[in-house]
Amino acid sequence: MNDMRILERDVDTNQIKIAARGVQVWYGDNHAIKDVDVDIQDRTVTAFIGPSGCGKSTFLRCLNRMNDTIDIARVEGDIRIDGEDIYDARVDPVQLRAKVGMVFQKPNPFPKSIYDNVAYGPRIHGMASGKAELDEIVEQALKRAAIWEEVKDRLTAPGTGLSGGQQQRLCIARAVATEPEVLLMDEPCSALDPIATAQVEELIDELRRNYSVVIVTHSMQQAARVSQKTAFFHLGNLVEYGETGHIFTNPEDPRTESYITGRIG
Amino acid sequence: MTDASLPAPSERRQHTSLIAPDARTRKRKAAEARFRMYGIAGIATGIFFLIVLLVSIVSSGAGAFQQTFINVPVYLDPAKLDKNGNRDPEEMSKVSTFGYSPLIQNALLNIVNEQSIETPLEKGGDMKALISASAAAQVRDVVLANPDLVGETVDFRILASSRVDGYLKDRVQREDVARDKNIDAEHLDLVDALLPVGVVEKTFNMAFITGADASESRAESAGIGVAMIGSFFMMLVVLVLSLPIGVAASIYLEEFAPKNRITDVIEVNIANLAAVPSIVFGILGLAVFIQFMHLPQSAPLVGGLVLTLMTLPTIIISTRASLKAVPPSIRDAALGVGASKMQAVFHHVLPLAAPGILTGTIIGLAQALGETAPLLLIGMVGFIASNAPDGLASGLLDPNSAMPAQIYEWAKRADPAFYERAWGGIIILLVFLITMNTIAVILRRRFERRW
Predict the structure, then answer these.
(1) Per-residue CA distances from A69 to A89, A94, B358 (Å)
(2) For A74-124, how does the pLDDT look when each residue is reduced to its tens digit (9 = 90+)?
(3) Optimal mutation site among B337, B341, B349, B447, interface A, most CBs of chain A within 10 A
(4) In sequence order, what are the residues at sequence separation of 6 or more whose Cβ sits closer than 8 angstroms to the Cβ of residue A104?
(5) Could you give the angle at which helices A164-176 and A194-207 cross, rounded to 10 degrees?
(6) How does the average pLDDT of chain A come out, rounded?
(7) A118, A149, B157, B173: which has the highest count of C-beta atoms within 10 A?
């Protein structure tokens, strides 16, 4: 862990993008998230860390209502994006998910061509009026995901034929193609080798310029490397939330300290 | 942890050689070898029975694809066929097949005399046993279609009787003939004499593949063609109804329906329906489609509806299985970029499940194609000697049989010639089933290899 880098990291003190208050999640009888309050800032990378089963992924999936697809999941509390309650009855989760993109743990490109993978979101949201415009969107998205140079000559090749790291960057391209404002990443590097991980991390740092990025990770080093804010979850509780440098060098809660030093988890 | 805390190796440990196996290992190996033997024996038994089955089907049924014909020039006597001499088909149609039979018999007798074959059969009526009962109708049809032929001598290729046909296929033996009042040894002698001169010949039997069923006394002219068309229309109904209904039901149950007690009950009942005996569907079809809805009896439409009910559970189960096999990450990916549930299903899940759905559908259709029991109850089994339908409506609504029903019908008739045709029908049915299953395999391979 490079502590010096963390301390030097500049922290944006932008306005709050997502405000969560009193969030509770149940899976059946299992109380998975207990009363979580958190403010996620715009143009910032926020890392969720914590031991397995602590609810960090569950909380992440609340932010774009992916928990709706699980029948037994029940979400209570108040989550606002730009002041709008995303669990309001009038909110269409489809629109929400276009605004809050998501990248999953395992690279999951569609079994279609690279081009179609990226173009799918813009197509269903009617973002392009013609072929030329769609080409432009696809190229921009692939460039932003730092994979354009590698795939520009084989856009018609199947996305599933790429390497793991390329697939994950393709998934990031797919997510950014719909012009989201928030990008949720659920352990995006856990299935990748160190080189691909480094590429994706570099990319996350790039993405921070335009998006509010929330990343769930098991790797504390990764959290330290890429994030400005870190939230530590334990047994469904948000134990500590603050500047990454602060959390890793001077945690306030003894549980945080135990976790980052490897005694629990 | 220190070494001191480890327990010492047991006293029972003895030095064993890796080269010489001990008793336990030998026993284990023997058990494994025995188990393999059982497996091989099981497979060998299966293959043996399969070969016996195929050989017996082919050897019993191959005869149906050959038929004995008699080539005979028939003098169409105007004195018998058109007494008034005005060639009016209306009037000529009053002469029944009884008027034509003697003409054919005499024509054959003439040939016998021309060839100077010695036979005790001297009268035209003696030739009756050689000629199919359908020959007169064949000649009559030609004459009525073309009245100007009357008065001329026309070459006809008429069916030989089933006894003659059976004699040339070794089905009728000379020792059987003594007890057979339909044919005598003299007739067989005559056939033997006519065979080398080409009057009697055995050729490929196209009429069996294209023709309609025939009555008990005319086994030689029975064909499976019309029953094939009946089966085709039934399959059309089954495909058109069960594929969309089955796929829609499975998509709803698998992707949209909430998981609660009602869907659980539905799920269990679909599995149960797949195991319901097909005759139950037949009686259901009789009660609902024929007695309540008054749809025509013996119609392929009704047969298709009944088979649809029977096939639906199979299609739903296989479709749900292939939908389940699509990785959830694909659904997540689609939902994650803002696709609606329906878009996720139709753009991503369904194309991936398509090969499985197609395979399940074709297997279901193949099952339905071979189904006989439900057809018993809606009147598609029996003597239905209809002509080939001339359109979609008549194909669906006119009485017809189906291939397995036709086979069953032939198998229970008395004349061994029908028995042979039943086996021939089985060969055709098997060819259809094997073709369908092959298509299923090819489709699955092709779609699965795409990426």
Answers:
(1) 16, 12, 28
(2) 898 899 998 889 998 888 888 899 889 999 988 999 999 999 999 999 999
(3) B337
(4) A171, A186, A188, B329, B332, B333, B336
(5) 20
(6) 87
(7) A118
- Percentage of chain A beyond pLDDT 70 is 94
SS3 content of chain A, % helix, strand, coil (to 5): 40, 25, 35
Model pLDDT, residue B144: 86
pTM of the model: 0.81
The rounded distance, in Å, linking the Cα atoms of B313 and B368 is 12
Kindly determine whether residue B332 and residue A104, on different chains, have CB atoms separated by under 8 Å. yes
Closest residue, chain A, to B347 (C-alpha): A120
Considering only alpha carbons, which residue of chain A is nearest residue B336? A102
Q: Nearest-CA neighbor of A217 among A229, A209, B395, A208?
A: A229
| pLDDT tens readout for residues B193-243 | 888 888 888 889 888 888 888 888 888 888 899 999 999 999 999 999 999
Mean of pLDDT values over A177-198: 87
Cα separation, B255 vs B257, whole angstroms: 6
The predicted-structure confidence for B63-104, as pLDDT tens digits, reads as follows 889 899 999 888 888 888 877 777 787 888 888 888 888 888
The partner residues of B202 in beta bridges, in order of sequence, read B68
**Cα A219 from chain centre:** 14
DSSP B125: G
Q: CB B451 to CB A97 under 8 A?
A: no
Signed CA dihedral, B138, B141, B145, B148: sign only: positive
- pLDDT of residue B123 exceeding 60: yes
CA distances to A81, A160, A192 from A195, in Å: 34, 19, 8
pLDDT at A1 (0 to 100)? 43
The shares of helix, strand and coil residues in chain B, as percent rounded to the nearest 5, are 65, 5, 30
Q: State the DSSP string of B203-259.
A: EE-HHHHH-----TT-GGG--SHHHHHHHHHHHHHHHHHHHHHHHHHHHIIIIIS--
Three-state DSSP class for residue A63: coil
Span B434-443, pLDDT tens digits: 999 998 888 8
B332–A108 CB contact, under 8 Å: yes
A-chain residue closest to B340, CA distance: A94
- C-alpha span between B226 and B208 (Å, rounded): 10
Query: Backbone dihedral region of A230: left (phi > 0), alpha (psi from -120 to 50 degrees) or beta?
Result: beta
Inter-chain Cβ pairs, chain A and chain B, closer than 8 A = 68
Chain B residues interacting with chain A (CB cutoff of 8 angstroms) = 258-259, 327, 329-340, 343, 347-348, 352, 450-451
Mean pLDDT score, A62-69 = 87
Q: Measure the CA–CA gap between A120 and A110, rounded to whole angstroms.
A: 9
Asked if pLDDT for residue A263 goes beyond 80, the answer is: no
Return all residues near B105 (Cβ < 8 A) that are at least 6 apart.
B124, B125, B126, B127, B128, B131
Q: Inter-axis angle of helices A131-144 and A164-176, to 10 degrees?
A: 130
Tell me which residue in B331, B338, B352 faces A97 most closely, judged by beta carbons.
B338
